[in-house]
Amino acid sequence: MREKILYALGALAALLLARNIWVMLTGLPDEAFQGAIFRIIFFHVPAAFTCFLCFFVALVASISYLKSGKMQWDSLAVSATEAGLAFGAANLVSGMIWARIIWGIWWTWDWRLTSMLVCWLLYAGYLVLRRAVEEPAQRARLSAVLSILSFAVVPFVFFSIKWFRTQHPQPVLYGEGKMDAAYRAMLYLNWVPLLMLAAVLIAIRIGQENRRRELDALRREAHSI
Amino acid sequence: MTALSVENVWKYYGDFPALRGISFEARQGACVALLGRNGAGKTTLLRILAGLSRPTRGSVRVFGRDCLDAEVRRQTGLIGHGIGIYDELSAYENLRLFAALYGVKDPRRAAMEWLERTGLERVRDGLVREFSRGMRQRLAVARAFLHRPSLLLLDEPFTALDDRAIALLQGLLKESLAGGATVVMSTHQLREALELATHVALIVKGRLAHAGERTAEMLEDPGWLYRTYGEA
Amino acid sequence: MLFLRQAWTVAQKDLRSEFRTKEALNASLSFALVILLLFSFAFDPTAEMTREISGGLLWLVFAFAGALLLNRSFARELENDCLDVLVVSPVPAAALFLGKALANYILLLGIEAVCLPVFGVFYNADWTRQPAWLAIVILLATWGITIIGTMFSALTVNLRLRELMLPMLVYPMLIPCLMAAMQLTTALMAGQAPSGDQLAWVRMLVGFDIIFTALSVALVETVLIG
After folding, report:
1. Which value does ipTM take for this structure?
2. Which fold has domain A2-166+181-218?
3. For A67, which residue in chain C has the nearest alpha carbon?
């Protein structure tokens, strides 16, 4: 039953995504300065939103784990963090592709790019920590603490890198004008299938985590005999 | 009077219950020998009693208070697997440090007194790193007793000790028990433990298989308990 | 009051054993000097160049040397299972943590006090122009490094591959703190007292210190008692 719901949700996300891409390609005109490539923003920005939403879910799950000690919360925390990292990577890569075409370079130490990279590394560290702890309850406890610390540093990262960069002269490569209403609508509309996709991924990972814990428990049981 | 009460303690490692509903009580002045095979959960239980680990479910109350309470900690003494003293500090500095941490009234005097009792006053300023094994063990025993704990938790205390340290520890344990202290020790060395023990608790696969007074039967045939209550 | 006395007892203990062996101090100090040397190959230490990057350079040295020192903080308790004995003592985990952080802070400040003049000599940098402000920045940013480093030392104390993992965890966390320190120090080395925008960095340092001290103190018991 649970699996059927997940499949249905995934299929719905795919349909919506296909519909959005169709509209993007046929319904929306090319942007005046950037041409066709600007459409990447419909994935780039919602991916960033989804990424931080996932990290926030991981924070809530981590706090709940520390409060209740229920391993379910730990499963949610790690699943959400992994999904967040996937969407963070999507954000970074789509940004790089866009930068290569518009700016002619793959990477620039622009504050948004840099901040995103730092956050990505922070949460990658969370997974590194988890791999180093064998006992599930200890792993859950330590990684929950790390998740809280990481989330607390995110605003500092964004503000500091923004101040750091804005104090340095930088070539202004594009103006930050207001986005056309049709574009903005599409941006939010495309967020919906990405969110659904994130939910499906998280649900699948939670199932895997639960099964892995069962296996671990069986292994311990076997060792104790 | 009940000194220690363990109520339905469960400890999970992930989904694996290492302790499964352990309940027992120890009255003041009792010496409980915690028996069981390797991996049965003895160390896990002792770590919970010492406040090094929290039970997933259930509670441990010492003198009517939670075992994580600072006042309980002040009255608890622990001898674990390691000796728990600092190699880079001298014998005197080690004891003074722990006397200070436990809020002993006059840390200097307490440290000197215990150096004398353990026969280490001649090497009081020697670094522990340079001590022989036996001297380190005696210092570890002094460290556990110098704040006059009323609950003593010992994890395999006789395994690592030499004869002189065993004699010292047994003497101190007898003295503490006579003074109304409560002792819980996990052990493999059945004879040494059973001689002191007033009660036994046998843990089998995380469950309390038997808890009760130590009988003369057990002393004569230490294997009896395992055969009767343990797994085949 | 009791809390502070307990923290100070722990700090004294750490300082005493560190001064006796000088293991971490020596390693950390010589590492700092080696990095100072290595940087001279990375760029041409002309006056112009040094002025532009002096803050960044100095804080990288402090951060590298600091991580080496802070890694050892809780790890040194593993020998003889001393950590267990400290945790079961009546000292609250928060006091234990703050005591250790305080000892680390003093040691790290000592290392920085040696490195700063050496840096001045090697790179011909005049760091004495704004002594009061520089002291404030160093005190604030070093506390930030110390608190994060000590917390992660506690977090990873029982884990395998601890040394390999710590840099990956600690440096991204430290980025805001280091960036503020770098910005301010570069300006101070050029003789400018912080004003306007620069004061925002000072405020950020203060905020960073307060938030992470509070979080660490609140969470350290969870970390140490499983």
Report:
1. 0.93
2. Four Helix Bundle (Hemerythrin (Met), subunit A) (1.20.120)
3. C222
